[in-house]
Fold Agamous-like MADS-box protein AGL62.
Amino acid sequence: MVGRGRRKLEMKKIEDRYALQVTFSKRKQGIFNKANELATHCGADVAVVLFSPAGNPYVFAQPSLDAVINSCSSSLLHHRPSTTASSVHRKQRVQQLLDERDHLLARIEAERASRGSDGGGALGGSLLYGNLIKNALCPISHNPLQTLVTNHGPPRMG
């Protein structure tokens, strides 16, 4: 059999069962070697769990699997999520939309006041129109069923 040597392989699942087992065995050992180097050179706590194609588990842990799991679980319990760029962007966008809503509501009120003083007009005379816009721009903070009951009364049976 001619060796394949070091070459770039296409990333796809190996279909041949024998080749799959050989590749898994070689790569498993390589991953465990890298994990050992990381633990030795950097003093890192490392745990690697691999499952073979047959479903057998293989574990490498330094100093021990229990120590790494306990360290990980205790740090997760005490970890406070840091402010990420996406959450900052989301907060800025929400604030921008709230500011835009407030600006539009102020314009509606100003238009209503100016039209109300000259006898009505298309926008100022329509209280329903102003309420529709105001409700569309305000965040939903109530139960729609309760609103329906309040506006139209309880449902009639029969």
Strands lie at 46-51, 57-62. The chain has a mean pLDDT of 76. The CA atoms of residues 122 and 143 lie 31 Å apart. The first helix runs from residue 17 to 42.
